[in-house]
Amino acid sequence: MSTSNRAGLYKKTFRVLKKHYKPVIPVADRSLLEHLLYACCLENSQPETADEAYAKLQENYFDWNEIRVTSVSELSETLNSLTDPVETATRLKQVLQVVFETYYAFDLEHLKKQNLGKTVKELQKYQGTTDFSVDYITQNGLAGHSIATNRGTIQTLVVLGIVSEAEAKKRRLPGMERAIAKPKGVEFTSLLHQLGTDFDMTPFSSRVRAILLEIAADAKLRFPKRKTRKKAEEEAAQPAAPEKAATKKAATKKAATKKSAVKKQAKGKKTIAKKASKPKAAKRKQAARKKTTKPAAKRPAKRKPR
């Protein structure tokens, strides 16, 4: 797709989304760390769900350190309203752990004093951060022009024909930040995020598909296909195939082992029988020798003289 066509499609997407969604503007007075932790909650969920989960974290735990030392399973129960509570809980713990180990405090405000590029590279190295969370904090905490995209957003852009499958795999979104001006970045990000999350959760929704078709009529050519019952059954049976093969292999191995054991047992019996027959043969040979051996001739007894 040419640069001008791509830019036009981004702008059309923006116009259409304004009719179907309302932008959710992030809380302005959050610290850098708070923006990062909120991004962990927001990544694959809708803003209202992320708000609810983030509020629960602040209500149920005394401070960030308590969250850091809480188990993933317990945290995921608190975050159960999110699309992926376990992944979110894992990311939260990892981010808090790396921040604590690096700075011995839950504070990232000093990063604002650094060059933006350097700060972004540093954040990308943190365990628990993702492309989405780094782009989100860049836009909302560091005043940079970066549009955060989650997995649903990437899939949506592929369906719309704005990016190719190859570009999507590399998370390359050429021309997006040029097509959308920085002052409109926060609004566009929020609207696109809502559509992307809806598509990720309900890809066959008639409402979502209608919005996509309003943006690009040829999007229907790239809609995900529903799996037929036969295909679903085949896919469900596939994991069982290796197990079946393994069972068959184990049975063959067991049969071979049993056969080998029988052979060994038979061989053992034969050896014992052979050993047992050896003494008998020796006795027979000895008896035969006795028969064939001639007795010594008797000498006439000497008579006493009269």
Question: What's this model, at a glance?
Answer:
The protein has 306 residues and is mainly α. The chain has helices at residues 3-20, 32-42, 47-60, 64-69, 72-78, 85-103, 116-125, 131-140, 151-159, 165-169, 176-179, 185-201, 206-215, 229-237, 240-292.
Describe this structure in words.
Among the domains are: 1-26 and 147-220; 31-140, Endonuclease III, domain 1 (Orthogonal Bundle). Helix content is 66%, strand content 0%. With 306 residues, it is mostly helical. The chain has helices at residues 3-20, 32-42, 47-60, 64-69, 72-78, 85-103, 116-125, 131-140, 151-159, 165-169, 176-179, 185-201, 206-215, 229-237, 240-292. The model is unreliable at 291-298 (pLDDT under 50). The radius of gyration is 40 Å and the shape is globular. It contains 15 helices and no strands. α2 packs antiparallel against α6 (85-103).
SSE topology sketch:
Blueprint: H1 3-20, H2 32-42, H3 47-60, H4 64-69, H5 72-78, H6 85-103, H7 116-125, H8 131-140, H9 151-159, H10 165-169, H11 176-179, H12 185-201, H13 206-215, H14 229-237, H15 240-292
Helix pairs in contact: 1-12, 2-3, 2-6, 2-8, 5-6, 9-12
Overall form:
globular
Weakly predicted, low-confidence segments: 291-298
- How much is the radius of gyration in Å? 40 Å
Please state the oligomeric state of the protein chains shown. Answer: single chain
H/I helix tally: 15
Could you state the CATH homologous superfamily of the domain at 31-140?
A: Hypothetical protein, domain 2
Approximate strand percentage: under 5%
